[in-house]
Specification:
Elements (H helix, E strand, L loop, with lengths): L1 H28 L5 H15 L2 H16 L8 E2 L1 H16 L5 H11 L7 E2 H20 L2
Antiparallel strand pairs: 1-2
Length: 141
């Protein structure tokens, strides 16, 4: 009796596996009809083949652009945008209770060219410095 209940479970499961495999193969091998199809296929291949460092780079870029441009130039962070980014993305590292004086100091230190905004290069400098500090902390003996 036990083998019969296993059979009722395994046979439909096997059939579903074959059907879903055939559907997936058909979708993957279908002719590309539009540039959107090609772009989606390219994105799938890219996500599968990206190394961890490439994924980290993509995340850095997307985090920057998630906050930039809300108050002005889309390629830079204003002081308010930087504050939002620091609280949301780096709050655990910097501490949630960061006061305005600390934000002003971080902003002043990051704004190397004194243009009143933080560009991508200045942002990456912050992330690189924080990464180095974290590495030193975790590798101390």
């Amino acid at each position: 009796m036990m083998w019969l209940s296993n059979l009722y479970f395994l046979v439909p499961l096997g059939i579903l596996g074959v059907v879903y495999g055939l559907i997936g193969r058909k979708l993957w091998l279908r002719p590309q009809r539009s540039s959107r199809d090609r772009a989606q296929r390219h994105t799938i291949k890219m996500l599968v083949t990206m190394s961890q460092v490439q994924q980290a780079m993509a995340l850095l870029i997307s985090a920057f652009h998630k906050y930039s441009g809300k108050e002005g130039d889309k390629t830079t962070l204003s002081k308010g945008e930087l504050k939002d980014l620091l609280y949301a993305e780096l709050g655990e590292i910097l501490g949630k209770n960061t006061d305005q004086a600390k934000i002003d100091k971080i902003f002043k230190d990051l704004d190397a060219n004194s243009d009143g905004s933080v560009d991508f290069q200045e942002y990456v400098t912050l992330v690189a410095c924080l990464t180095m500090v974290c590495n030193e902390f975790f590798t101390k003996k």
